[in-house]
Design a protein that fits this description.
There is one protein chain. The N and C termini lie far apart (43 Å). This protein has eleven helices and two strands, in the order H-H-H-H-E-E-H-H-H-H-H-H-H. By secondary structure, it is mainly α. Strand 1 and strand 2 form a beta hairpin. The longest helix is centred in the first third of the chain and has 32 residues.
Length: 288
């Protein structure tokens, strides 16, 4: 029998997983907005972030250093991918850009295997994040609560950067009206590089946060990319904030579906996408 306490726990679990989806989709939406191309290397950046966090936190003994290293390493990697590879095809055919990013993802995955091997790894949260807290209706793992809070803080910080600073104003201009922004003297290419680095850093941070929760495997990036793309479509391809809302919703729906139909908990994500797009083709917060 499914009780209200169990439902509450599943909703809380869904919010934690949805927070990771939201981080991934947020970064993916920022890159998509400026490049107008879905970043097929986003899942590989998630993978790299997880393994960098595992290696650095294991070597240094600092969980915080592992998170910081994952975000910084993937941001620098994203900057290199944009400047050295994507920029050369920025005005080229759409298909060529997709193939380039897909090939880049494969190279990163194979590099991870070459460095750390193909076997799965495990990463434990720090001692102060083990155990559970009492939510009133049921105990809830501290680490899941930490994921929700950490994702909320990061998303709020990026929102403040985009909405409350002159840098953010230029990024919004580059996303919404790139030709006009360039005619006003804004260096759109520099914005694209910065946005790619920001989106890649968010993907790496999401991977680092996910590592203690799901463990590490060389396929985790591919699995997360598929869900992140669905979340971005659900949120609306023209909205960088729609993915945040859609990520939380998808996480909760997936978690609740696991109560009744565990075998179809992943299928529910794609069914939800079909249902939403049938009613609202532009997504939750997108424009026609």
């Amino acid at each position: 029998m499914i009780t209200s306490a169990l439902l509450g726990v599943q909703v809380a679990n869904g919010l934690a997983v949805g927070a990771l989806y939201a981080l991934m989709a947020f970064g993916l939406s920022i890159i998509k907005g400026l490049l107008n191309v879905p970043n097929f290397a986003h899942g590989a950046l998630f993978l790299v972030g997880a393994y960098v966090a595992w290696a650095v936190s294991g070597g240094s003994g600092s969980f915080w250093l592992g998170l910081l290293a994952a975000a910084a390493a993937t941001a620098l990697l994203g900057m290199a991918i944009e400047r050295l590879l994507v920029r050369r095809l920025h005005r080229g055919a759409y298909l060529f850009q997709l193939l380039l990013l897909f090939g880049t993802a494969l190279v990163m995955e194979q590099t991870v295997i070459a460095i750390w091997g193909g076997l799965g790894r495990s990463m434990s949260p720090p001692p102060w994040l083990t155990g559970a807290v009492d939510l009133g209706f049921s105990p809830f793992p501290r680490y899941l609560l930490f994921i929700v809070v950490a994702a909320a803080v990061v998303i709020a910080a990026v929102w403040a950067l985009i909405e409350r600073t002159w840098i953010g104003a230029r990024i919004r201009a580059g996303i919404e009206r790139p030709e006009m922004a360039q005619s006003l003297g804004i260096d759109v290419e520099a914005l694209v590089t910065a946005a790619f680095a920001l989106g890649a850093g968010l993907a790496g941070l999401a991977g680092a946060l996910a590592a203690p929760l799901t463990g590490l495997s060389v396929t985790m990036g591919t699995d997360m990319l598929a869900i992140a793309l669905v979340v971005v479509v659900l949120g609306g391809l023209g909205s960088i904030y729609g993915g945040v809302l859609a990520g939380l919703l998808v996480g909760v729906v997936q978690s609740l579906a696991a109560l009744w139909v565990p075998q179809a908990s992943t299928v529910v994500i794609y069914a939800a996408m079909i249902l939403v797009l049938a009613v609202r083709p532009q997504g939750l917060l997108g424009e026609r």
